Amino acid sequence: MAKQFVTFLMSDELYGIDIFNTQEIIRLPDLTPIPNSLEYVEGIINLRGNIIPVINLEKKFHMVSGMKNKREIIIIRAFNSLLGIIVNKVFRVIQVEESEIAQPPSILSGIEEEYIKGVTRIDDNSKVVILLDIEKMFFEEEVKNLQKMGG
Predict the structure, then answer these.
(1) pLDDT tens digits for the chain (151 residues)?
(2) Residues in a beta bridge with 83
(3) How far apart are CA 126 and CA 118, in angstroms?
(4) Around Cβ 21, how many Cβ atoms within 10 Å?
(5) Looking at domain 2-149, does it have CATH number 2.40.50.180?
(6) What gap in Å lies between CA 106 and CA 40, rounded to an integer?
(7) What does DSSP assign to residue 113?
(8) Cα separation of 148 and 143, whole Å?
(9) Residue 72 CA to its chain's centroid (Å)
(10) Contact assessment for residue 130 and residue 18, using Cβ atoms and an 8 Å cutoff
């Protein structure tokens, strides 16, 4: 059975998240900072009346920042809440057969293994995509606390 993933660049690597967890992709607007928030919370945005916390996954995963000019936000759903994740650039939507998803190598650049669903190859096997598991990247309590920050 095939699954679809939204792929994006972060820290000069290609990542993917299940399209099921993705609501929309927007250009990076001005963010409203939140005083005394977690280091990886960049701020909040107002998206059509919804106040959404915006997360920097590079900071959350303690990764070296790739490109300095982040341009897009992927609005995701986790535990029935909306979060924004800042990415360098959305690449494209890919369709992958479950049989084409391999277990991740034991060591991947700074991301805890439990956050990764697997890896796959695209473009005639020349590019590797690390598939992230949104539900494991954020604890339910963490998402609820992030939502409280947004009001």
Answers:
(1) 899 999 999 878 899 999 999 999 999 999 999 888 888 899 999 999 999 999 988 888 877 766 566 789 999 998 888 999 999 899 999 999 999 999 877 665 556 667 888 999 998 878 899 999 888 777 666 766 776 765 5
(2) 76
(3) 17
(4) 19
(5) yes
(6) 25
(7) G
(8) 9
(9) 11
(10) no
User: Any idea which residue has 């792929």 for tokens?
Assistant: 7
Domain boundaries, given as residue ranges, for the chain: 2-149
Contacts of residue 53, defined as CB under 8 A and 6 or more positions apart, other chains included, come to 34, 41, 43, 44, 83, 84, 146, 147, 149, 150
Six token digits for residue 105: 């190598």
Distances (CA, A) of 7 to 12, 14, 60, 67: 12, 7, 19, 16
